[in-house]
Structures are given as C-alpha cells and as structure tokens.
Amino acid sequence: MAHRTLKTGYSNMVDRLNRFPQGAPPSEWLYKILKILVSEREAKLIANLPMKPFTAEKAAKIWKVNLLQAQKDLDELASRAILIDIENEGKTIYTLPPPMAGFFEFSMMRIRDDIDQKVLAELFYQYLNVEEDFISQLFTRGETQLGRTFVHEPVLSNEDSIHVLDYERASEVIQTATHMGVGICYCRHKMEHQGLNCDAPMDICMTFNESAASLIRHGHAREVEKKEGMYLLLQAYENNLVQFGENVRERVNFICNCCGCCCEAMIAARRFAVLNPIHTTNFLPIVNDDKCTGCGKCITVCPVEAMTMVTANDPHATNRKKAKLDVDLCLGCAVCVRVCPAGSLSLKSRLQRVITPLNGAHRVVLMAIERGVLQHLIFDNRVMWSHRAMSAVLGVILKLPPVKQIMASKQMKSKYLEALIRQKNV
C-alpha cells in the first residue's frame, strides 16, 4: 500500500504514536481513523511533538513557526481532544495522549457533528474488535498493564474493608479528585453504531484531575460534583458494571464502568486471559458449596467468564449444579458476590498482593522497560530532556528490582546508568 512505501504525515504520526509504551500497530483501518480525526498537515505537526509535556514556545521551536501560529495549532488540537492542555501556574502545558486510553476514546465521548461518528465507530470496530493486533499490543505486552480493576465496594465486609487501601476504592478516587468529568462511554457508543450495544448506562465514563479539566474546558465531558459522581458510581454498581481504571495509586485519570459485552478491557480479559491483560483486585470470591443453589446468576454477570456451572455431586439430587470459579481468569471485581441470592459467595484476600505503580510516570517507565522502548522516553530527538525530567525517570529506575534495572540499562546502553545502579546496590 502507498503508506508503506511513501512517508506521509499520517505514517510519520503512526511512527510517533509507536514511541509510546502503548502504541498503535499500522493498519489500513488505523490510517482511515487518523484521516477522520486530523488533517495531514496536523498529522505532520503531531509527528514532531516531544514525548514529555511541552509548552507552545517549545512547539514553535520544533515546528519552526512563530509562537502565534504554534499556539493556534495547539489550541485547535486541544479543542478536539487530540492533545490535552493543562493549566499550571498560569502556564499552559500540552501533552499528546496515547490512542488509548486517550484520543480514541475522547473522539466518542460526546455526540459530535464535526466528524462522522458512525463511520468512525465502524473503523474502530474493525481495528479493535476484528483485528487483534492493537488490543493484543495494548493489553498483553509486559507485566505492567494500562489498567486495573476496582473492587465492588458495597459487598465488602467489615473485615474485608480493613484490607482495602484507599487507592483501591473507586469512591476514594471520586472524593479526592481535583476535577471530575463525565462523558459517553466510548465502548458502548461505538457498539451502538454497530447495533451491538447493551442497555447499560451510556453517560457514565469518568475522567479525573488534569485530564478531566482539559476535557471539561473543551466540552468533551461535563463537569460533575462529588455528590453526582458518587451517584453515578452507585448507578454503575446497580447495573453490575465493573470499574476499570488507570493502573496508578496517585491522581487516577480515568475510571470506566464496564460491561462484559461492549468494553474493550473486558473483551481483552477474556480473549487474552492467560496473559493477564488487566491487573486484578486483591480479592477472590469463594463459593460455599452447601449454600449454592446453582441459579447461575453469578455466571450471567461475570464479565470475563470466570464462573462456570459444574455438577454438585449430590447423590440425593443428581441434577443439582453449583458454581465454580476459575481463579486464573477472575478479576476480583466481586460483582458476582452482589447478585448471589443465596449468599453463597464471599470474598477472601489473594495470597499475593497486587502491586500498583505509584503514578503515571512510574507506570510509563515500567511499561517502557518491559516493552523494550525506554530509549524513546530518554533519547527523544524532538527535544532535549531537562535535568529535572531525566532525574524523574532515573528516580523510578533506581527503585526497581535488579532485573528490571538491567533491562533498563541495556535499552539505554548507558554506562552512566549502569554506574548509578551499581552505586545504589553497593
């Protein structure tokens, strides 16, 4: 195809996207998606943006245009949620988010008339649901993944609650966020255009903090107060939706309320279960065989098909069934516990606690190391990294286990990093 033999603005943009730990494998469908979202001129500009957050002055220097023109282009891209703009001490900082969680979702978080969302939804469906390359690359490479599951809080016993840390509660994310925005669920909106959506609530996609502030400012999400945020979380619980959020402890940027039929994360969890595409909670449901009536409600609501029905081996009732959990598939969301009418399901802590990265920088560095692309974060030829930025990345690396430190050192091919690591481990 032409895009494989001739460099265009779009092919350069695809190259730029694949410098992220979460990339976007080249595909005919991807090029068609990008052509709807940005012009070729904009694609060329995006292709030259740095990995780290940047100012309009920095963009003007990279693009070799005056500041006024750079500001105009940046604000236009931010207005369409291709870029995220963050207000910081009177200064606007811009960043290019990855396609997911990022500008793919943002393009479908509201009803728009500036693009054909039906065509876009069909392209997303082909790229994400029919082809497997994007979802496989997003959810299965490396140990550290994009997202994690939150436990279904209403079913927590007093004893369980003691073991749930604040960052593991969706309610705590809502209560502590500086900003909260709500938009249309990208996954169900996409499926709606295919005639495949379920009847779960649509206006329930949650964004927080700096990302929410940008999306609210440009009309891609509506601002909500904490009280409404808690009401929407309750609505998600009542509809047996699973909370899937950013895999960090501090300043979570998103929580999706996922159904098992439409949502990309749940589909990936089923399709690539053995590769652990989603970080689980620290709980597992336990079946009380004596209480289980075999009604099958837990099977119906499980988003990843971790529950099955097997014979109860009851000599007095040969047709009796009971629920059985596949612990290797279970996310620990506990939605099944909520719907069990016999009270035969309860929670227990996993034997080994799931480790969650501290913040976005920590997660991105881990993902980059595991996927072999750390050098893209460090050696960004679009802009020289400041000592402060380099120190932040090295600070993460130096706190990693020795095996990951070696992986990082090999990717950077840096004697300086090797010396730092050795000094730390002396």
Summarize the structure.
This protein is of the alpha+beta class. It has helices at 2-5, 9-17, 28-37, 40-47, 56-63, 67-79, 99-106, 117-130, 133-140, 158-162, 170-176, 186-194, 209-217, 226-238, 264-271, 297-301, 335-339, 360-371, 374-378, 387-397, 402-412, 415-425; strands at residues 84-88, 91-95, 147-149, 180-184, 203-208, 222-223, 242-246, 254-258, 283-287, 307-311, 321-325, 345-349.
What report would you give on this structure?
The protein contains 22 helices and twelve strands. The chain has 426 residues and is of the alpha+beta class. The strands form four sheets. The protein has a six-stranded antiparallel beta sheet. It has a two-stranded antiparallel sheet with strand order 1-2. A hairpin with a 7-residue loop joins strand 7 and strand 8. Helix 2 runs parallel beside helix 4 (40-47), helix 3 (28-37) packs antiparallel against helix 8 and helix 18 crosses helix 20 (387-397). The longest helix has 14 residues, at 117-130. The radius of gyration is 23 Å and the shape is globular.
**Strand arrangement in the largest pleated sheet:** 3-7-8-5-4-6
Contiguous helical run count? 22
Q: Radius of gyration, rounded?
A: 23 Å
Shape: globular
Q: Quick one: how many beta strands?
A: 12
Q: Strand-residue fraction?
A: 5-15%
Which residues sit in consecutive blocks of at least 5 with pLDDT less than 50?
1-5
Q: Could you say which structural class the secondary elements and strand pairing correspond to?
A: alpha+beta
Distance between the termini: 54 Å
Proportion of residues in helical segments: 40-55%
Average pLDDT for all residues: 87
Let me know the largest β-sheet: 6 strands, antiparallel
